[in-house]
Amino acid sequence: MFNMKNFAQFLVGKRREKNITQGQLADMVGVSHQAVSKWERGESMPEISKLSDLSSALNVSTEDILTAMHTESSVPEAKAENKDHEYYALPDKTLVGDVCALAPFLSKEALTTAITEIAIAKGSGIAKILFKYADEDILREVALLVFAADTDKGRLDLVPYLPQEEITKLILNRYSSGGIGSMLPLLPFSKDFEVVDMIFKSIVSKDGNWNALKPVVSDLMPEVVVSNGIDYAVKHGIGCFGTWWGVLGYENIAKIFIGYCRHFDHSFRAWSDIAPHLGRADKRLILEELDKMKADGYNFNFEVNPLQLRVLPADIRDRLLKYGMYPDEKIDVKQHLNPFFVPNNFSEFEEYIQELESKIEELESRIDDLEDRLEDIE
Q1: Using CA atoms, how far apart are residues 73 and 351, in angstroms rounded to an integer?
Q2: Closest CA to 105 of 125, 127, 141, 78
Q3: Residue 359 lies in a domain
Q4: Could you tell me how many helices (H) and strands (E) the chain has, helices first?
Q5: Which of 31, 58, 80 lies at the terminal end of a domain, its last residue?
Q6: What CA–CA distance (Å, rounded) separates 241 from 262?
Q7: Over the stretch 6-52, which tens digit does the pLDDT of each residue have?
Q8: Domain range holding 316?
């Protein structure tokens, strides 16, 4: 069985004994610099056809190479000691392959320095290869040092390790300076409801819509999304989320629906508004909310349009009827149907309603497709 980590340590050691770089070794073996880098990071192995060239380049036998590839450990126990001195002796401490080979044997201080230097020079996307060797204390220190350096390289991979107060400070500083584009990627990492909610409301108030938030809204605090979603739906109608269903998520949509209905005191206007969209929501949460309302003594005893009642999914409709909602017998159902259709019995009426529901869903699907195409064109 291959042991890539063991082979990586073997390869790095032999290359350094020959005093050659990864690029020089790559030229001698006839592979790319990236290939050698992957070998030394323990991410891949050389092809069998390259073992002879590798043997010549490193002045070792192919048997030694194969042994390093397969044995549990070809590194003598004495070499498993602290290697800080080797790290500090590196001529270029931003070469990830060289640092990665030493990382398991570095002290916390040296590893902190190593990750910090690479993150500042090349960005956290490169430095994160080393994260697996560090604990949270090290990564928190690295994050603070890198952000303090104010490098123009990417730092997003380090944001989760920043203290919350530092994340809040970054968000507010960037927002106040008008850097919406650089602030938005930070927003999902904040757990400060007041700050995220304030910025959410400010952006929507300024733009009149949620479009600027679409790239990050699915990762924001659910409480913020739901609270603002209810307000926005009450103001603009549930249909305003026509292109957002897949972004908001089933749970958030259910909670927005619940809040929307609660705002209108669970009038049937509210229930009929959300009825065509209930397939987008987590109905389990809606049913749980109805059960909680009943347990809390909410009065469901009011009349509704019987035709509209049939538009609701059976489980929600049955729960509402069970808790006291009842059809308004004064409404003539036939007046709301196709004038050429008169049901002979309840079963026929149910089939007709199901057919209408199917057509509504089909139309909604077409509208969603058209809206997606329009977004692509824009």
Answers
A1: 72
A2: 78
A3: no
A4: 21, 2
A5: 80
A6: 18
A7: 888 888 888 888 888 888 888 899 888 788 888 888 888 888 888 88
A8: 186-331
Alpha-carbon 375 to chain mean position = 22
Boundary residue ending a domain (34, 54, 80): 80
249-283: pLDDT as tens digits: 889 999 999 999 889 887 777 887 888 888 888 88
Contact 41, 11 (CB under 8 A): no
Over the stretch 126-174, which tens digit does the pLDDT of each residue have?
998 899 888 889 999 999 999 888 777 788 899 999 999 999 999 999 8
Tokens linked to 281: 């929501």
Q: Are 274 and 306 in contact (CB under 8 A)?
A: no
d(CA 213, CA 200): 8
For residue 88, how far is the Cα from the chain centroid? Answer: 37
Task: Please state at what angle helix 51-58 crosses helix 4-17, rounded to 10 degrees.
Answer: 40
The predicted model scores a pTM of 0.59
